[in-house]
Amino acid sequence: MSEVRFRDSIFARLVVWAMLVSVGVTLLLWAVTYTTLDRSSRAALVRAVDVDLAGMADIHASGGQGELAKRIEDRLALATDDGNASHYLVADNAGQRITGDIAVWPKLDARLSEAGYITLSGNVPAYARATQLAPDLKLLVAREYGYDSALARRISWAFLAAGGLAAAVVGLLGRWRANRLARRVGRINRAFREPDQPSLEALEEGSAETDEIGELTRHTSEALAHLRRMVGAHRETTDQVAHELRTPLMHLDNRLVKALAKAQDEDDRRLLSDARAEIRHVIALLESLLDIATSEARKGDRLGLSPVNLSQLVNRIGELYADSAEDSGHVFTRSIMPGITCQGEEMQLTRLITNLLDNAFKYVPAGGTVRLSLEQGPTLSVSDNGPGVPEDERDHIFDRFRRGRSNIQAGESGRRHSAGLGLALARAIAERHRLTLNLVPSPKGASFVVAPETKS
């Protein structure tokens, strides 16, 4: 199993959601701010034009057309502080200009005191209102609003920039915190994957935090420490049981050897030899069961593993079986890629390979072919052209005490003392090394493949 990539991490998704929420809130606030500014500036624009128009109408009413023209010239000569200049036009009913700086009367009805947005010369946008001052005299007051729009845009862009910066800060801080949380969770995952001493020590260092992950780390550390104690106690107990059983059996075997040396009758010698064979079978059975239990208890545990030149190991084993294959009348072929290494225990890997080869030679009659191959991966396969595994036994071929059926007479004696633990032990050793052992389909015979576990 590989490390979780950041983009697949739940913390990464939380950071992305936080950034999306920040961006969403920023856009919402920007929309509200822009709308509010736009409405306020437009209302102020309308109010300014109406007040100016009312003032000009009062000037005309009190001072006449001459006074109105003078006041318009005065106002046009003044520079505005807000950047939105006012413009005026006094014209007759035909639209001919009398005074003011607007050249052409727009499409606004003075009799209705109509207002609207117009474009002045030079493509300057403005808001204007017209009114009828006298039967043959009308007034237009306009005010630019481009400065207000530009100001609103600048404020909006500043708001968006600040919001984007805030989202970026949230993302950076969130990623920093997410990476820290991911490293803390990663220590827990590594301790489960590789419960060796360095992983447990790293786990204890991370248990000082007082938050939820710190509490989870403490519970994980305590649970794994308890599990290691239980596994150690189990291993010690099985070793003691094995010793207590193996010792008297070996003593009994020695007594049988002495009795066999003294026996004169051929029947007695045969019975004593059979008894010795049964004792050795029981010892081998006991050792196999202990090896299976030990391998299963240490499944995935990297402690005690070291680099093994698998190509050299398989070559050595292959050479030994090549000699015995000639004696048994089998054809033994090898295809071993050089330079393949792996982390493992050499003795255990040796037992895995020899169990598979023993199983193949046991069930393949003389004249049959056994093939041993090693490829990059590492992928090891042992296949043959023998009778194969019956369909109803394929799902249970790796079960303990499961012995295959065959009608080949030559193999019956070889299987008489088989306990059915060879393939079970081989699979347990494979899993201890994070490998898989499977019976794969083949056109003829049986084919067993050892390959790395599929990463998830």
From TrEMBL:
Name of this protein: histidine kinase
Keyword Membrane: yes
Record bears the keyword Disulfide bond: no
CDD domains associated with the record: HATPase (cd00075), HisKA (cd00082)
EC id: 2.7.13.3
Keyword entries, A-Z: Kinase, Membrane, Phosphoprotein, Transferase, Transmembrane, Transmembrane helix
Organism per entry: Novosphingobium aquae
Lineage top rank: taxon: Bacteria
